[in-house]
Amino acid sequence: MERECKPLNFPILSTKRLKLIELTHKHVDSVFEILSLEEVMKYYGTDPFTLPAEASRLIDLFHKNFIEQRGIRWGIKLKENQRIIGTLGLNSMQLKNKRAEIGYELHPAYWRKGFALEAITEVLNFSFQKLILYRIGALVYPENEASLQLLQKIGFTLDGLLRGYIWQNSKPNDTYVLSLLKPEWERSQK
User: Fold this and answer.
1) Rounded to an integer, what distance in angstroms lies between the CA atom of residue 110 and that of residue 40?
2) What is the pLDDT of residue 80?
3) 37: burial class by Cβ within 10 Å (0-12, 13-18, 19+)?
4) The whole model's pTM is what?
5) DSSP for the chain?
6) For residue 168, which phi and psi values (nearest 5 degrees)?
7) Rounded mean pLDDT, 149-170
């Protein structure tokens, strides 16, 4: 019988080029640098950060969500130079219902180099194998074609459109809902 895994220690994950680590206040400047960029925040669901204190509060929220088992957010660190290039994580995590939503962002200097694919693949393996999740969802603005293509390449299926779902830039924005189920992921990994 499968048991759900309740993380006690923050799970550090590793890929060929990346280390997925717990974000702490020593990473505030890196997180602020990324989340203050207009092009990064365009489809994030909130406005660009204007103060480092916003990054500090977000790191506190990530930690609180982890402790309360409502989410896990990793810092994406390059092994070659130890630089934080983005974050990736599970939001709205419900271990009892075996589901979560994935979210991520990268500094634009690292777009289209396979880093997001590498990190997401590792988090999906962890989610399905260690946390015993069954469904990973994603919310994506229809205009965010790069993210849509990446998720569909990984195997996510478009479930539908949520009209006016996220309020950003003083207007309602539609979002696509995508999902990937554990059996679909397992088949794709054979």
Assistant:
1) 11
2) 96
3) middle
4) 0.92
5) -------SSPPPEE-SSEEEEE--GGGHHHHHHHHT-HHHHTTTSSPPP-SHHHHHHHHHHHHHHHHTTS-EEEEEEETTT--EEEEEEEEEEETTTTEEEEEEEE-GGGTTSSHHHHHHHHHHHHHHHTS--SEEEEEE-TT-HHHHHHHHHHT-EEEEEEEEEEEETTEEEEEEEEEEEHHHHHHHT-
6) -150, 145
7) 93
Please report where in the chains the tokens 């505030």 appear, as a residue.
28
The dihedral formed by the CA atoms of 93, 85, 166 and 128, expressed in degrees to the nearest 10 = -30
**Span 20-32, average pLDDT:** 97
- Location of structure tokens 């779902």: 165
User: Nearest to residue 173, comparing CAs of 183, 163, 181?
Assistant: 163
Q: How far apart are CA 87 and CA 95, in angstroms?
A: 21
| Mean local confidence (pLDDT), 83-103 | 97
Q: Which of 93, 100, 77, 67 is nearest to 20 (CA)?
A: 77
Inter-CA distances, 27 with 35, 41, 131, 170, Å: 12, 18, 26, 30
More confident call, 1 vs 5: 5
Band of residue 67 on the pLDDT scale cut at 50, 70, 90? very high
